[in-house]
Each structure stands twice: as C-alpha cells, then as structure tokens.
Amino acid sequence: MKRLNAFIRKLRRADDGKKRRWFIGSAVVSIACVLLIWGWYVSAFVAGGGSPEAPQGNATPTGETVGFWETMQSGWEAVRGGVTEQFENQENSFGGAIGGIAEKANETRDILIETPESNFYFTEGEERPTATLPIAPRKK
What is the DSSP string of 7-48? Predict the structure, then answer.
C-alpha cells in the first residue's frame, strides 16, 4: 500500500504529459476489462439461453453452435433494422409537419382593421377638461 501511495504522489508531481499518458493507458485498460467481462457474460448467458426450453451451451434449436461474434452480428442486424425503421417513421412525420407548416405559410389571410367607436378627439367648441398639476419644490 505504501508503494501505491508513493507512486500516486510521484505521479501528482509529474509533468502533464506523463499524467495524460497514464490517464489514457488506464482508461484503455479499464475499457478492455469491461468489454472482456461483457463478452464472457454474453457468451455464457445470452447465447446459452437460460430457459429450460432453450438448448444448453451455445447450441441453437437446430443443433448448430453459435459463438459470440455470431450473436453480436445478429443483434446488430436487429438493432440496425429497428433504427432504420424509426428513422423512416421520423422522416414521414417530419415531412408531414413541414408540409403542414408550408401550407399554413402559403394560405391567404384577411386582416380587418376597425376604427374605435369613441375617438379621443374633441370637437370645436367642446370644453376640454383641465387638471392642475402639483408643482414640485425646487432643489437648492
């Protein structure tokens, strides 16, 4: 444990290039470990099934064996097909929305401007009301 603490202190004092190299290296090793464990999981549990009706191991119902990469390829094809279908649906709905917006923009509109019934103009001879405003005291 003391060696690990000493190494971490040494790495903290190192220049940025060395810190960056250690960071990238540890990230690559971590990702590789996660992918390796995930691959073992997929090979052991997904390809083998898990239900009593499914064949044991990595054999299909017809008796042929399926490996990790075959499972990944079939999964990728299923996902790609679903994503393609979603994009096609989005494209159709997007095209319909754009068509609706274009239709609204091109339709003619009638604008009616009416004058108010009571205008605030006084007629000749009519007395205009006046108001006395308070006078503010002057600053000295």
Answer: HHHHHHHS-HHHHHHHHHHHHHHHHHHHHHHHHHHIIIIITT
